[in-house]
Design brief:
The chain has 232 residues and is mostly helical. 45% of the residues lie in helices and 0% in strands. It has one domain. It is built from 11 helices and no strands.
Amino acid sequence: MEGCVLTEGLTYEDRSGTLIDWNLCFNADGTSSDRSFRSGTPAFMAPVLLDDEKIPRRTLGHDMESFFAVIIWVATFTYDDEAAFQVKPLADILLDQRTAPKHIIYAKRSWFENPEGFWKSIVEYFEPVYREDIGFLKCLFKLREILYPGTFDLNALLSGGLDKNDQKTGDAGPMKEGLFRQCMKEIDDYLGETKGCYEMEQIGRRRAAEGTDGRGAGMEREEDEGEVVPGQ
């Protein structure tokens, strides 16, 4: 569809294929259709998508919340002892077929929005290789704070205490692109690379050059203070 902000100007002449998962589709302006957002694996879905309240659109922020859930799952999974994994809080609740979506919402909010709860119910059940990786834990807690703003001091927590330090982070962009960029930077920093941030910047530059940065059409382009430039 010509002029559609979601496809950045691409039309059927540029790409062709088969469309599936229609319940995840958007209108051309980025807003949701009348279809439900409840599609996916509940254990990995953003809590708000499992709720009954109507939301205007599915965003990049929701995708990053799913990625966050996958990271936690990988760090918790016990490859050589399924029974040991099954009794961990993450698996005990999320793998129970009797668990209703609302209970998954409560569980995730209890774990993710409370740093102490996240530490005690999630991190302490990580496999040793992840639990002992301080760099990984710092990255994970930064992602948690971006996605689920709260009050905590990670350094104090890692040293055996927990002080309050209000550092709430917001993102007014309809598609939560700024939030997505923040998370990508934290992941890049942990991995010691710039690939994620660089590709996001490339997308932003292409939009600006083509005049498809989405201003006035539900997408806001944000300038990062710490812009990553290869070679610098």
